[in-house]
Amino acid sequence: MVNVDITESAQDYLKELLDKQKDNDGIGIRMFVANPGTPSAETCIAYCRPGEQKEGDVVVPLKGFNAYFEERSLPFLEDAKVDYSPDRMGGQLTIRAPNSKMPRVTDDSPLEDRINYVLYNDVNPSLASHGGNVSLVEVTEDMIAVLKFGGGCQGCGSVAITLKQGIEVQLMDKLPELKGIRDVTDHTDRTNAYM
């Protein structure tokens, strides 16, 4: 189920944009979140020509066109609202997605989402006191969380202790399916290092 409110004025505006596209027969929109579950998350709406929809997309018929919602983005689009407000300059389309940076995470959420939740709610607030942060790069097939440090943690002399005695303990305790943690940060760059 898609819990995104695309207002009538937004549907009218989007339909108008779609009608202006070349070969617009069957064109719709696709809504997704780039970098979901991170502070750099960005909610996007793009044109979706016939054949450009992705496997797993959820299709919602709107006023004269279809909206395709990326399945992976659905938890991050929960309670999102797309609205259009006309003004003297032409108007503005606004997208509000309050869960794009941190969705409601459950035990059934993808492992990446659960790792990001722990990093951004439990780990990064502690690191921020030293001007540092850590982010998830990927989870390998053998269930290793690959992390990258930034800010004051990059090049810090205490990062190995922070990783093994702090972050790894927290992640492995809360996410027992993880087999380990690996740091891929270039610590030779000590420009902003805390220690």
TrEMBL record:
Cofactor: [4Fe-4S] cluster
Chain residues that bind [4Fe-4S] cluster: 153, 156
Quaternary state and interactors: Homodimer.
Protein name: Fe/S biogenesis protein NfuA
Pfam family, one: NifU
UniProt keyword list: 4Fe-4S, Iron, Iron-sulfur, Metal-binding
The protein's role, per its UniProt record: Involved in iron-sulfur cluster biogenesis. Binds a 4Fe-4S cluster, can transfer this cluster to apoproteins, and thereby intervenes in the maturation of Fe/S proteins. Could also act as a scaffold/chaperone for damaged Fe/S proteins.
Cofactor annotation remark: Binds 1 [4Fe-4S] cluster per subunit. The cluster is presumably bound at the interface of two monomers.
Domain Core: 3-101
PANTHER family in the record: FE_S BIOGENESIS PROTEIN NFUA, IRON-SULFUR CLUSTER SCAFFOLD PROTEIN NFU-RELATED
Similarity field: Belongs to the NfuA family.
Domain NIF system FeS cluster assembly NifU C-terminal positions: 115-180
